[in-house]
Write a structure and sequence with these properties.
Radius of gyration: 12 Å
Strand order of the largest sheet: 1-2-3-4-5-6-7-8
Largest sheet: 8 strands, antiparallel, barrel
Number of domains: 1
Order of helices and strands: EEEEEEEE
Helix content: under 10%
Shape: globular
Distance between the termini: 8 Å
Length: 93
């Protein structure tokens, strides 16, 4: 698992910088309006993927993240895991 971004909580959002072979940009995860717990991933206001909540069983916040193939070619799934006051996004191959 290779870290591709670090995010900090900003109100109800998570904000950080993503570094991939094709993209280096500010990425913001915002809650979906219907209260489902899903977060929408956006770069410059445009949706580029989403994050679905997962439960690890030990109280650590975790999301399965699906990003557009242009953002992260060859990777279908990422993990966004809370570690203290920050979240780390890692690519899973």
């Amino acid at each position: 698992m290779k870290p591709i971004g670090t995010f900090l909580k900003d109100g109800y959002c998570l904000t950080g910088i993503i570094h991939t072979p094709t993209t280096q940009a500010r990425l913001i995860f915002t809650p979906e309006e219907n209260g489902s717990g899903i977060l929408i991933a956006r770069i410059d206001g445009e949706p580029v993927g989403h994050a679905e909540p997962r439960h690890l069983g030990d109280g650590i916040p975790c999301y399965a993240v699906y990003l557009h193939p242009d953002i992260l070619p060859g990777v279908r799934l990422c993990a966004l895991v809370g570690k203290g006051c920050r979240y780390v996004l890692t690519a899973r191959r």
